[in-house]
UniProtKB/TrEMBL annotation:
Ranges in a coiled coil: none
The name this protein goes by in its record: Autophagy-related protein 101
GO biological-process terms attached to the record: autophagosome assembly
Gene source species: Wallemia mellicola
Pfam entry (one): ATG101
Single GO molecular function: protein kinase binding
Keywords (A to Z) from UniProt: Autophagy
GO cellular component, one term: phagophore assembly site
Family according to the record: Belongs to the ATG101 family.
Length: 228
């Protein structure tokens, strides 16, 4: 059974790309599990851990840009970590054996983004503050989950930067999985399975609430704080 962690962040569209990159960097920092040099990023003045790697940095930026470009009022970012397993099967007609490999997911991270557009400078500042708070909460959840949930991690058999293959999925298309059988298509199917389960388990969750009600809640909360 794949272990799953879900995060939810409400964000101003103007900061979506930066916030997405920061969250993805933090998840990879905790679960890459190879030998790497750490570094620190500042996202909306929130310090976040990252990996000192040009290839990882380019990958994160590409998917953060994709999320920003393809999301309107909602967005989904997922990170699927897998283990490569091999097995030997008898070859056709009984001539020897052949080895096949497959990737089996062992952990899936889902980040649900509620995306709002600021209507004024005051509204923009409110969204900035709330996004900061959500970002800090998400970072603490990532750290706590990574520290508490370790028993399911497969044995690490290499000293590479990324001992386990991982797949990043942005706004996965709904519907049945493709028949290609590629590792990425299997990762997309895994993400859709998790998302489908979330919809059935919590139809009235914060993420499924109408965005206008979310915006109203945020504004009301901040107005209440200002009055006090």
């Amino acid at each position: 059974m794949t272990v799953t962690k879900t995060l939810t962040i409400t964000v101003d569209k103007a900061y979506l790309e930066d916030v997405c990159a920061g969250i993805l960097h933090s998840m990879l920092f905790q679960r890459t599990l190879g030998n790497f040099k750490p570094k620190e990023l500042a996202v909306l003045d929130v310090p976040m851990p990252a990996i000192e790697s040009a290839s990882i940095g380019q990958l994160v930026q590409r998917y953060a840009q994709e999320l920003s470009a393809t999301s309107t009022d909602r967005g989904v970012l997922a990170l699927v970590l897998a283990e490569t397993q091999s097995r030997r099967t008898n070859h056709w007609f009984g001539f020897g054996e052949q080895e096949t490999t497959t990737q089996v997911p062992w952990e899936t991270w889902i980040v649900n983004f509620n995306i709002l557009i600021s209507k004024s400078e005051n509204h923009k500042q409110i969204l900035y503050t709330n996004t900061q708070n959500d970002l800090q909460k998400a970072l603490l959840q990532i750290l706590a989950f990574a520290d508490e949930r370790k028993d399911h991690i497969p044995p690490i058999m290499t000293a590479d930067l990324t001992p386990f293959p991982f797949h990043i999925v942005v706004n996965p298309p709904e519907g049945p999985p493709t028949r290609s059988g590629s590792p990425h298509s299997l990762a997309v199917a895994e993400v859709n399975r998790v998302l489908s389960g979330e919809k059935h388990q919590s139809p009235n969750s914060y993420f499924s609430a109408p965005l206008h009600s979310i915006a109203k809640r945020i504004t009301s909360s901040n107005n209440s704080e200002e009055n006090h």
